[in-house]
Amino acid sequence: MKKINWKQVGIGFLLIFLFYLVLPNVVALLYGIFFPLDQPQHVIIATLLSYLIMLLFFLFFYKESLKKDIKTYFQNFKHFFKVSFLTWCKALLFMMITNLIIISIAGDIAQNESTNRSIISMFPVFSCITMIGLGPFMEELLFRKGFKDAFPNETIFCIFTAFLFGFAHVSGILDFSSVQAFIDSIPQLLFIIPYGGIGYFFARAYCETNTIFTSTVTHMMHNAFAVLVSMIGVS
Length: 235
What we know:
- The chain is mostly helical.
- The chain has one domain.
- The chain is built from 10 helices and no strands.
- The model has no long low-confidence stretch (mean pLDDT 91).
């Protein structure tokens, strides 16, 4: 029986650590030497630089694999795009239902969603570039491609990446400023369910077609819809 490849799991976690924690801080530190990061536009530029640097790294790191994946995707474009669309419909339905239930418990929308809405309202162009384009592609490489071959079967992989993806979108929401604030922030952890759920659907799309571009297109569809809804809501 095939065992979990812990070395690959470790590399996957290392890439996540580098992308979410190390690289943004290093770029911000270096960028801050020349430009004031107390101005929002410079924070946006520094963030974009982080994305672009990591994108170049991934294009090099997964060069051969990505060539194969994109060739496979376009050779079966009609079918794979249909898979993406149907998967997105399922993911959207799941997220809408679970969000409604959890909002009734937590009393508010997910903190991640609230933050995204604020960014979209202030920086719509930046939001389209990162949330619809760069973000989905990078996250699919981090949470899906980085772990797929590390697990003995697809179900374990899908469950693992669902939890990891969900946790990444609710991490940092616990408020340790006071005991009451901590207690009040705990219900926000429930949002790991909708985020993890859509992560599971993305992983299934990847497994079904064996190309990361199917799950990436699914992810882009979902984020594009979310950005559009937010823009309509704030306009």
